[in-house]
Amino acid sequence: MSITATAGHAHTDPHQIGVLIEHPGPAPKRIVTAYGFWIFLLSDIVMFSCFFAAHAVLAGQTAGGPRGSEIFEPSYVAIETVCLLLSSFTCGMASIAADVRNRLWFHVSMAITCALGLVFLVLEFREFADLIARGYGPSRSAFLTSFFSLVGCHGLHVSAGLLWLLTMMAQVFAKGFRADILRRMTCFALFWHALDIVWVAVFSVVYLLGSAP
Predict the structure, then answer these.
(1) Which is nearest to 199 in space by CA: 116, 142, 126, 140?
(2) CA–CA gap between residue 176 and residue 11 (Å, rounded)
(3) pTM for this one?
(4) How far are the Cα atoms of 49, 67, 119, 151, 198 from residue 131, in angstroms, in the given order?
(5) Structural contact between residues 114 and 84, judged by C-beta atoms closer than 8 angstroms
(6) DSSP per-residue codes, the chain
(7) Which long-range contacts (CB under 8 A, 24 or more apart) does 135-143 make?
(8) Domains of the chain (ranges plus CATH)?
(9) CA trace torsion 72, 73, 76, 81 (10° rounding)
(10) Distance (Å, rounded) from C-alpha 157 to C-alpha 191?
(11) 146-188 pLDDT tens trace
(12) What gap in Å lies between CA 162 and CA 169, rounded to an integer?
């Protein structure tokens, strides 16, 4: 009887069978890196959410200046949107090319992504320059301050993304598809797609709703 009890206790005591339990090791670097970058993106989205909230509160504070419906041109901004959405597609193609280790299509896709991003920034800069030339700069009203802050912050992120893109192209050209470079490419793709999502929100909330009479 005592032998049976001892055997039963051995089967239930984790200290007795610890050697039989396989403890999972540390997660692969690819997963850890992507997880950490997701946390960064979430913090970035929180920041943009604050800008959106400020814009929603200040949208009517024009101080006698123009409203969004008087200065926004949705058709012009739609061109920016198309460029950025297409760049998201080509960025995805670059990610696929990196996964299959195809340097040619990787560089072609990244070059197209870069060109579309540059077109987006040029159009945005022209929009800002035109508004400032007409006397509708960020200091004109609280509404324009929130507008320039939100859209300008997104533009700065796109600029940083383009610098990152060029760095990725140079690294792949010089060192090939090493494991660490592929991890950075994964993070870049996440960053670029996140910027596209934020821009869709900017286009919908700031421009489309702001252009309503």
Answers:
(1) 116
(2) 52
(3) 0.82
(4) 24, 12, 19, 13, 22
(5) no
(6) -HHHHHHHHHHH-TTTSGGGS----PPPHHHHHHHHHHHHHHHHHHHHHHHHHHHHHHTT--TTS--HHHH--HHHHHHHHHHHHHHHHHHHHHHHHHHTT-HHHHHHHHHHHHHHHHHHHHHHHHHHHHHHHTT--TTS-HHHHHHHHHHHHHHHHHHHHHHHHHHHHHHHHHH-S-HHHHHHHHHHHHHHHHHHHHHHHHIIIIIITTT--
(7) 136/65, 136/66, 136/71, 140/63, 140/65, 141/61, 141/62, 141/63, 141/64, 141/65, 142/58, 142/61, 142/62, 142/63, 143/58, 143/59, 143/60, 143/61, 143/62, 143/63, 143/65, 143/67, 143/68
(8) 28-57+90-208 (1.20.120.80)
(9) 60
(10) 9
(11) 999 999 999 999 999 999 999 999 999 999 999 889 999 999 9
(12) 11
* 10-residue averages of pLDDT along the chain (213 residues): 45 48 59 80 92 89 80 88 96 95 96 97 94 89 91 96 96 92 92 95 88 70
Q: Tokens 């040619």 correspond to what residue?
A: 104
Residue type, 157: H
